[in-house]
Amino acid sequence: MKVPAPVKTSVEGFQVSVEEIEAILQHPPMKLPPWKDAYMKLKDERILFIRAMQDEDVPILLDFMDKVKKTEHDFYDIVAARVYTEILAVPRKRIKDPFTLVGLIDGELVGFANGRMWDKDLAISLHTMAFSRRGRIGWAMYYAKTYYALEMAGAKEWWSTFESYNGWRMAGLEMAQPTKPFPQMQHELGGATVFYLTKEDWDARVKNYARDMVGDDLHFDPSAELKKKNEKLTVPAELQL
User: What is the CATH number of domain 34-228?
Assistant: First the structure.
């Protein structure tokens, strides 16, 4: 769009570099603590290794989410479509202060969870996905990212919303999360109802409940052997959704 200048100027225009534009579009990141490699023993005895997403994981995860997008039940299609953009936004620097976790068993992807920091006091839950029907992996991944937001990143409040009935039952209902007034306050994922946890609620009851549902707590002392097994991410040959 062009609008005539209201005064005579000595120059007709300026050349702006993309680096200067990027400085405006991409805000400086917060100094968030890194996620420390951890593991949990699931109720089916398998060992779930949870680590941060790495750069080399991105193309593998994007290809996998392309497949999940074709699953037209239990809202996997819309969740996978949104997760695809959230993963891609990390290397493209188009998401503010994200934290992205992958859950692996012997290197194979079985769970995914992500969120982002709104500011130093508020963390936003984005998505949680499980790709194995046993072991309560969804519980474990949601617990891990909530733990990161409230215990490690220092947020005072945690906002979620739920696209699937299973997700709402697991976290919204069973964790007894209250809601913010609607429509005055809406979650960024489609303007849905905001379910929330305060750090006080987490400490008082939800943390212990979620941990009991998984059957174990996070252990941040994985062996070198366990780390090696899960260093390279692979995806399931067949979807189990």
Answer: 3.40.630.30
